[in-house]
Amino acid sequence: MKKVGIIGVGKCLPKKVLTNADLAKMVDTSDEWIITRTGIKERRLVAKNEATSDLAAGAAKMALENACLEPVDIDLIIVATVTPDMSFPSAACFLQNSIGAKNAVCFDVSAACAGFVYAISIAQQFITSGAYKNALVVGAEVLSGVTDWKDRNTCVLFGDGAGAVVLSEVKSGGILSIYLGSDGSKADLLKISAGGSRHPASHETVDNRLHYIKMQGNELFKIAVTTMSHAAQTVLKNAGLECKDVDLVIPHQANLRIIMTMAKKLGLSMEKVYLNIERYGNMSSASTAVALCEAVNEGRVKRGDIILLDTFGAGLVWGACVIKW
Predict the structure, then answer these.
(1) Are 2 and 163 in contact (CB under 8 A)?
(2) Catalytic-labelled residue, pool 106, 113, 155, 293
(3) Please, what is the Cα angle at 226 between 272 and 154, to 5 degrees?
(4) What is the DSSP letter of 114?
């Protein structure tokens, strides 16, 4: 089988910073309350008229430059997002037009916070089969548009951003194993109720604030720790590895306490866990993508390193990926 690896990384974060102090002026909260419960100090928000595909384009251009490829070299674009520019066309099609990747097949993947790993898995299979050569995978979100800024339990958590990778055939290393999972029976724990076919937009859905993220945080915390730990152990086992073989874990950046508890359960030192949650909060599918880009740019990832991506989100869905860099 062909070996598929990441040959370029990129990111794009909005310029506007929303701090905990800013939030304390909007809802009944405080910097101490937010940091203690989440580990978040600030998050980024898009400017007016800035959409998901705009962030995706910024990240994609950086990833292409890093991979030493031109947009026309890309023949597959997958954007992982739950906040596309609009229901259709896809954010991937807008991205294609924006960067001039005229030869690419384009589509979106909706798998919430695990979307980036899901999209990597799909792209890997297309390249392995020989259908496509170079794939651009982007995790991009504008969660500020679906955040209820009157709900102090959720508005402190989310931010906007995008991260991108270019996948292609490599001679050595690359993706060693991917593990995906879903449990639709717990869909009500994290959702946006309105805007789809079940509850189309109406005066009633707007008045009842049903177009915003609703979350049962306490229940999700326990499930996230257990599921992410299991996903990490499973994907490593499938790759013939153990936790001690991992050089760096890049988990979904949802809550610092979840990440710390998961690391402890796996017997991993926090020195082996990459964190950027304090700067960006939870960016859903963009979180792991941005963190991977930053880890590479900061020199935390070196050739030959074993990297573990570990994600969990609404659906419920989860995905883990082991990469030999």
Answers:
(1) no
(2) 113
(3) 85
(4) G
Question: Is 272 buried (19+), middle (13-18) or exposed (0-12) by CB count in 10 A?
Answer: middle
Q: Span 294-302, mean pLDDT? A: 97
Model confidence pTM above 0.70: yes
Q: What CA–CA distance (Å, rounded) separates 227 from 179?
A: 12
Which is the catalytic residue, given 20, 66, 93, 252? 252
The answer to whether 153 is a known catalytic residue is no
Catalytic annotation on 113?
Answer: yes
User: Which tens digit of pLDDT belongs to each residue from 127-182?
Assistant: 999 999 999 999 999 999 999 999 999 999 999 999 999 999 999 999 999 999 99
Question: Which of 235, 252, 298 is CA-nearest to residue 9?
Answer: 298
Annotated catalytic residue, options 93, 282, 293, 321:
282
* pLDDT band at 1; cut points 50, 70, 90: confident
Q: State the first-to-last Cα distance of the chain, in angstroms, to the nearest integer.
A: 18
CA distance 37 to 52: 28
Question: What token pair was written down for 220?
Answer: 């999700």
Q: Annotated catalytic, 203? A: no
SS (H, E, C) 128-197: HHCCCCCEEEEEEEEHHHHCCCCCCCCCCCECEEEEEEEEEECCCCEEEEEEEEECHHHHHHEECCCCCC
pLDDT in tens, 200-233: 999 999 999 999 999 998 899 999 999 999 999 9
